[in-house]
Amino acid sequence: MKPAVEMRNIVKQFPGVLANDHISLTVEKGEIHGLLGENGAGKTTLMSILSGMSVPDEGEILLNGTPIQFGNCEDAIKQGIGMVHQHFMLVPVFTVAENIVLGNEPHKGLQLDIDQARTMVNRLSSHYGLKVDPDSVIRDISVGSQQRVEILKVLSRDAKIIILDEPTAVLTPQEVEEFYIVMRALREAGNTIIFITHKLQEIQEITDRTTVLRDGKVVGTVNTKDADNERLARMMVGRDVVLHVKKEEHQAGKVELRVENLFAKDARGLPAVKDISFEVRAGEVVGIAGVAGNGQNELVEVITGLRKQESGKIYLGDRDISKMTTRERIYAGLAHVPQDRQRRGLVMDFTLVDNFLLGYEDSPPFIEGPMINYREAERFSERSIEMFDVRTPGAHVTARTLSGGNQQKMIVAREFQRNPTVLIAAQPTRGLDIAATEFVHEELIELRAQDKAVLLISMELTEILDLSDRILVIYEGEIVGSMKANEATPEKLGLLMAGG
Amino acid sequence: MANWSQLISLALFSATIRSLTPVLYPALAGIFSERSGVLNIGLEGMMLISAFAAVVGSYYSGNAWIGVLWAIAAGLLTSLIHAFMCITLKADQAIVGTGINILGIGLPSYLLLKLFGSQGISPIVNRLSKWRIPVVVDLPVIGPILGEHSPLAYIALIMVPVSWFVLFKTPFGLRLRSVGENPSAADSVGVNVYLMRYIAVMISGVLASLGGAFLSISYLAQYTRMMTAGRGFIGLAAMIFGRWNPWGALIACLIFGFADALQATAQAANVPIPPQFLLALPYILSIVTLIGAMGRANPPAYVAKPYEKA
Ligand SMILES: Nc1ncnc2c1ncn2[C@@H]1O[C@H](COP(=O)(O)OP(=O)(O)O)[C@@H](O)[C@H]1O
Ligand SMILES: [Mg+2]
User: Fold this and answer.
1) Which atom of ligand 1 approaches the CA of A45 most closely?
2) The model's pTM
3) Beta carbons of A105 and A117 less than 8 angstroms apart
4) Ligand 1 in contact with A406 (CB < 6 A)?
5) What is the CA radius of gyration of chain B?
6) Ligand 1 within 6 A of CB of A42
7) Is the model's pLDDT at B251 over the cut of 90?
8) What residue ranges of chain A have pLDDT lower than 70?
9) Residue-range domains of chain A with CATH
């Protein structure tokens, strides 16, 4: 049998980046084929070429043994190729039904036949068990639902080869489980699926074979059941990776951060932090585990001075910082790696130099009289880029052009070099690939070794368990559990996180 | 002598229809263009060029309808320039629009001198005769208001439901709006983003040209320098007030048209208000309604952003 897809020697050059460097990929009919690689490896680019969204510089594509010419999506759709993009391709102000039929609209005479569209959506929706409401407007529905719309859009065009670009990144754990069921059902129905991810356990869970990409090249294709996580990680990163950081025993010192009876409200004015008290000692990592939206954001914002507290006290060492501005708290020794790096962490349209300068811009050696000393700022940026291995074409590009992982490395570089006594790290590895995650974890452990106090907030239980010395569990704005890390298990924590 | 009672009459409402026509065209024109993601602040210039072309067409043929065709051709040509610069060359759309506006001042003035040897006004030409709509014209109240107008005024009014239908009820309209709201999404399902935007800008050019033709060979029967007097911009304000919806734009145009008709009637009736203030009234009203609309207006997400295929 001829393979469903054969891509041969695909080359795609972007300004300054060879995104696909002679990539060849064979996908058999009826399999779930994993495409694994770190951020920036070239996965999306390769699949955009297959789906006609972008045009390769070199190479050929064969479908069922027949060479085809692409470069426009209409042709690809006609050939039965459908792609669910990493960044959804939906019109936010259109309804679900309108989005699904766009480009392929049923009509009565001149008029769009919205009833027929609705019927078609409902039929597909119940056939594949993908629940959507045809009349909801896209911007009002959850990302999980939006993703179902994307899949239905592909199915409505009779796609036989379905490309899914990091579909699980936006889903909750339960939604991921449901998603696996859908993928298996699609395979049973005879479809071929290409599944892009950078998460090893997803590859293990669902794929038949896996092709690993690194730096725009194919590292190899393996039968998934013959490959363990360590091997896949090595192929992906190009060296041995520490999937779980090891930390040395370390004696905790004096209390550096103390929070007493803290209360705060959320943006809607409802109580979000309710009577929270805890302390973090020098040389200690305290992890706060919890399901998203249980007051973690508000807690971090109050401690860093970005949100007003209703009552309670915050001490840095013996100094009461609860009345201080954010700037004063930074000077007092507090550093913050914010959860939303694009909103709070960086100014996306500033250059790296300007971003590195943030929070340092009024202290020597970065000022000279009334002026910023840009030579010094550049030196600092270049040193940070080097020390923290930020992958960038230079210090003068805007932060927006960097990948998420490299943006995060920038923030970590800037905040760690403040030489703080207390670091607050909110979801420091969200959306990062394995190598970047490993890096951030090692840096956090390094801070601990230097006797800094670290408060880690994370939704990832493995991260909390790997890094923390002590673990607190937050639920509906209250600390409902506290234990030493070596006494904690995922089951115990999971139960507390659910309010049990 | 001031005569206040003369102000409010059926004739005032009839004049409202006449006044709103040259604003409604650019409003609809703006809606088509911006719904597809192309900013079109060059409507004023497109109207001027078309108004002039209409006069030229009518002058040489002696037939005002030929003048309308000339106007449409001029509108198409100007909008093609706009489309080529904005869509193909991906130039800054506000700057291209401004360029078209400057062209709209300069080109007719130059040609006026060349063709007619005149600095500011063209010769009088044949204009479109009004249509009397049978039956309607004899109705009480409605008759005097709607019964007898320029064909271009009727076409403008009919274009409101037509535009609404095209934009919101047809596959074509869905595609046109999709390239203004998320061009990558449209592209990914095989909609030709560039083609849709060209078509939208050209529809915009045709509508603007009818507004220009209305001024020069229907309302008047000659071209006068800068005769649009900002109506292209007022049309854009009406588009924003109407949230890029033809019906909403019509409401805004009714407000403007009424104010414009009122000031003209008031001047004729010698009311004791300075004429400068009366003349400014419709514009002041536009600013006020625009300020009121600002907060809730949300333009198409990709307006003024050129589409770049990866
Ligand atoms: N449109 C583009 N313009 C310039 N560079 C791009 C573009 N798209 C992707 N790249 C670059 O190509 C490389 C591969 O990107 P991508 O295919 O998105 O990787 P992945 O999906 O594996 O994370 C990256 O270095 C990225 O910055
Ligand atoms: Mg990608």
Assistant:
1) 17
2) 0.79
3) yes
4) no
5) 20
6) yes
7) yes
8) 170, 172-173, 500
9) 5-237 (3.40.50.300), 242-333+420-500 (3.40.50.300), 348-418 (no CATH)
Contact B145, B17 (CB under 8 A): yes
Positive or negative CA dihedral for A71, A74, A77, A83? positive
Closest-CA distance, B200 to chain A, in angstroms, reads 17
Nearest Cα to Cα of residue A411 among A338, A460, A333:
A338
CB contact, 8 Å: A94 with chain B? yes
Per the CB < 8 A criterion, the answer to whether B167 and B173 are in contact is: yes
Q: Do A111 and B182 touch (CB under 8 A)?
A: no
Task: Provide the β-strand partners of residue A23.
Answer: A10
Query: What ipTM is given for this predicted complex?
Result: 0.90
Rounded-to-integer distance, Cα B128 and Cα A432, Å: 68
- Domains along chain B with CATH numbers: 4-127+150-294 (1.10.3470)
Torsion angle in degrees (nearest 10) through CA of A449, A451, A457, A463: 10
Residues B186, A103: C-beta atoms closer than 8 Å: yes
Q: Which of B36, B177, B189, B192 to mutate to test the interface with A (most CBs of A within 10 A)?
A: B189
Going by alpha carbons, the residue nearest to atom 18 of ligand 1 is: A44
Tell me whether residues B186 and A90 touch, CB distance under 8 A. no
**Contact indicator for A165, A85 with CB cutoff of 8 Å:** yes
Q: Are B202 and B80 in contact (CB under 8 A)?
A: yes
Place of tokens 């080109």: B107
Of the ranges A286-295, A307-316, B77-86, B301-310, the best mean pLDDT one: B77-86
Q: How many residues does chain B have?
A: 310
Q: Can you point out the beta strands (E) in A317-469?
A: 319-320, 334-337, 367-368, 371-372, 422-426, 453-458
Nearest to B174 among A51, A54, A105 (CB): A105
Match 């003209």 to its residue by tokens: B264
Determine the residue among B175, B188, B303 to mutate to test chain A binding: the one whose Cβ has the most chain A Cβ atoms within 10 Å: B188
Q: How far apart are CA A409 and CA A84, in angstroms?
A: 29
